[in-house]
Structure formats: C-alpha cells, structure tokens
Amino acid sequence: MRRIYLDNNATTPLAPEVFEAMKPYLASDYGNASSIHWFGQNVKAAVETAREQVARLLGARAREIVLTSGGTEADNLAIFGILGAARQKEKHIITSSIEHHAVMNAGKALEQQGVEVTYLRVGSEGIVDPDDVGRAIRPETVLISIMHANNEIGTIQPVPEIARIAAEHDIYFHTDAVQSAGKIPLNVEELGVDLLSLSAHKIHGPQGVGALYVRRGTPLRPLLYGGHHERDRRAGTENVAGAVGFGKAAEMAANPAAGEIEGVARLRDQLESGILANVPQVRINGDPQRRLPSTSNLEFSYVEGEGFVIAMDLKGVACSTGAACSSGSLEPSHVMSAIRKTADQARSSIRFSLSRFNTMEDIQHTLEILPGVVEHLRSLSPRYKKPVAV
Pick from 228, 244, 344, 367: most CB atoms within 10 A? Predict the structure, then answer.
C-alpha cells in the first residue's frame, strides 16, 4: 500500500542529511562535553557548532540559545523561569486561549500556585487582538506569552505588535514558535521577543531536542539544578547527537531550496481546492491568508473526525484531528472551541499538514481517496442528507 504522510505538524520525517550528521555522535565520537580531555572537547565543539546553527536560523547570538529536550521544556523554562526570577509578590501573566498545551497547562499549574493568569479570547479566525493584550496588562504583569503560529489551524499571530506593547510596559514577552520556526523566515530582532521556543522534530530534525532563545540580559531561573551546563540555565549532560541533528536541520531550514516554502504552499492550496471542488459542505478553519504554508484545517460537516482519520489511514493516508498531544481526549479541541466551533463542528475538523517531502502525486492520490471516505462516513450519520443534483 502506498503511504502518504500529511501530519507534519505532529512531527516531520528525519532528513537524510540530518541522520548522516548525527551518526558519528551515536557511535565513534563519544565523550561528555563537560570533560576537558580530547573526547569531551571534541563533542563540545560539535554542540557549540549546533548552537550557532540554531542561532543563525533565528538571527540570534549563539550565547542566547539554551538547548532543551524539546518545545515543551522550552515553553516551561520560559514561563516558570521568568516567574521564578520575578521579585514582586503578586504576579500575573497573559496568554491566549489557543496556546499549545505546554503553555496552557503551565498556566493552570501557576494558577494553583496563586499566580493570576489571563487567557485572551481570539476571533473566529484564531487571531489575538493586540489591543486586548494592552487592556489585559496590570501593574503586576510579569510575562506575556502568545504563540507565533497555531499548531492546529496554522494562524500566524501579530507577534511584532504584541512585542511592542510588552516593551512599552517593560514586560517580558515569550512566543512559542515551535510550528513556525524553520517553516517561514523568523528573526528575533524583527519580532521583538525576549524568549522564543522551537523544536528540532518539526523541521526534519530528531525528536527529543529543542531550544529556548533568551535575549541577552533576560533573567531566568532554571527548572533543573545540577551542573553548570548551558551557562547555568539548564543543567544536565547534553544530548550531543540530538543537538548536532538539530543544528543541521536548522542550517537547512535557514537556507531552503529555491521555492521550497512556496512549493509547500502550492501543494496545500491544491489539496484544499481539490477538496472544496469535489466535496460539499466543507469549510476552512482559521484565517485562510495569515497562516503557515504547511497547514490546512478543514471542517467536514456530518463527518466524525476520529473515524475519518482511521478510514484514511486504512487507505494509506495519515492526517489528524488536531494536536498529537491531545490524541485520546474525549473533549473537543480547545482551539476549535476558542474560535467559536460547536462540539460537533470541532469533532468534524481535520488537520492536514505538509512538508517539503510531500509531492503533487501525494496530493492527487489523496484527492482520489478522500471524497469516497467522506461520503461513506456521512452515510452513517442520521442527520446527513445528500444534496440533490440540479
């Protein structure tokens, strides 16, 4: 059976070039980067090269990059690190109602510790209004955390505008760029952020490694205590092979092949136009313009999402109903609820996410399969009435 992978927002396939770069550090080039002998210094140099490659992807300095175990740890380090370093007794943070669970659940944990958290509402297209951010600021606000691009619907937030508001009030600003870093051009100076999270496995790097950009001079209390790794910001022996793979993936993302980003967008648009032309009662979720080139989230009325994913998988096509970390949850997606979708609409929404490894043949094959799957699933719904041909 031909297998087509359209779930790249969950994770991406490891690029062959990344695997080749990692191989020596999984076998022959071993050592602890904190050791002063040749073995240790050899791998330390590899880690520092990787740090520089990640920094260049963001237009940052290498010393501003803290290597982590992934995007979740980077988000947590940013949020708990800033809150832990803040001296005032009363603390308040601002975030949005569509954040990744790494931020949402961090906020809930902080609330249990007595920290006040404001979860800003978004419009029906999933965009945060910068004016709402300004209105939510209080004297005790110490951090604003708004994601750069949403993992379910791909909407890109007005981060530079929000960053300016944060700077005007002398408040630290963090953005979760796990879905956008390496997929669209990013520069931390242009964004104006103090902290930014990213992850290797979203850009054809290995799983289990990520990074937090921390602007020079930003105070940060570590989550982990131990040795003096990562300039005392994140204790623990480095994942050398993972870091090297991350560095190579970042280098490739910073220098994409000509037309690569546009090519992914064309594939997404071809998929969407083919679905909309051949399947009735389908809507695009989110902002059709201000979104990642790789992401399409569609609502198929009268289709149960989990059943759709299973049926498509049985025919060789992988997609999803939303965030991979929410798989198995009986509750509708919090992102869909935030953009005013009913529970039925949320459960009828499917995410297709593409990468540079997808082809037009993948899209054409998917379009051959999908209408029949939708029609079969709708035939099982007692509420669905097939449109009468005119």
Answer: 244
Known catalytic residue at 319: no
What's the confidence (pLDDT) of residue 186?
96
Among 290, 297, 293, residue whose Cα is nearest residue 261: 293
Residue pair 151/367 in contact (Cβ under 8 Å)? The answer is no
Q: Which CATH number fits domain 4-12+258-379: 3.60.40.10, 3.40.50.80, 3.90.1150.10, 3.40.50.2300?
A: 3.90.1150.10
Question: Can you give the pLDDT at residue 282?
Answer: 98
Reduced to 3 states (helix: H, G, I; strand: E, B; else coil), residue 339 is: coil
Give me the pLDDT at residue 358, please.
98
Which of 30, 100, 40 lies closest to 70 in space, CA to CA? 100
> Pairing mode, if any, of strands 282-284 and 295-300?
antiparallel
Q: Which of 325, 344, 367, 384 is catalytic?
A: 325
Is residue 390 scored above 90 in pLDDT?
A: no
Count of C-beta atoms within a 10 Å radius of residue 12: 25
* CB atoms near residue 209 (< 10 Å): 28
Q: What is the CATH number of domain 16-254?
A: 3.40.640.10
User: How far apart, in whole angstroms, are the C-alpha atoms of residue 125 and residue 122?
Assistant: 8
Other CB atoms within 10 A of residue 161 CB: 16
pLDDT at residue number 332: 84
